[in-house]
């Protein structure tokens, strides 16, 4: 489960390594797959555009919680991960490092077209 001040991994090449969770945009208590969350940059690369303690948005794409997709089919990831978005809800990075659920692409009208993604 993801709670307040949880530290999440970033799986795109935006230059951010860790992301600290603050709030969900749709005012739920606990975020689910595909929710847009607000957070703080916790750890960055040296040559990144972002600095430590900058506010930014992200979309939750991996979670340690089980998700039942069909009747006898469920999936669980090993870590909690996000993809960084800018203020216009367009992905900052150009490449993703891990698998992402396919229905997240259709759940929101977010421009993830320029990301090279491996879908499950």
From TrEMBL:
Q: Which GO terms describe its molecular function?
A: structural constituent of ribosome
Would I find Heme among this entry's keywords? no
InterPro entries linked to this entry: Ribosomal_uL14 (IPR000218), Ribosomal_uL14_sf (IPR036853)
Q: Which domain of life is it from?
A: Eukaryota
Q: Show the GO cellular component annotation of the record.
A: ribonucleoprotein complex; ribosome
Give coiled-coil spans as residue ranges: none
UniProt KW keywords = Ribonucleoprotein, Ribosomal protein
Q: Does the keyword Zinc-finger apply?
A: no
What Pfam families does the entry give?
Ribosomal_L14 (PF00238)
Biological process annotations from GO: translation
Q: Belongs to which family?
A: Belongs to the universal ribosomal protein uL14 family.
What is this protein called in UniProt?
A: Apicoplast ribosomal protein L14, putative
Organism equals: Plasmodium relictum
């Amino acid at each position: 489960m993801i709670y307040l001040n949880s530290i999440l991994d970033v799986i795109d090449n935006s230059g951010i390594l860790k992301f600290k969770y603050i709030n969900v945009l749709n005012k739920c208590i606990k975020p689910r797959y595909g929710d847009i969350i607000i957070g703080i940059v916790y750890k960055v690369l040296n040559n990144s555009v972002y600095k430590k303690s900058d506010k930014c948005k992200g979309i939750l794409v991996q979670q340690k919680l089980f998700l039942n997709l069909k009747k006898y089919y469920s999936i669980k990831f090993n870590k909690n991960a996000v993809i960084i978005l800018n203020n216009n809800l367009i992905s900052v990075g150009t490449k993703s490092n891990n698998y992402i659920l396919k229905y997240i692409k259709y759940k929101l009208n977010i421009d993830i077209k320029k990301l090279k993604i491996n879908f499950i």
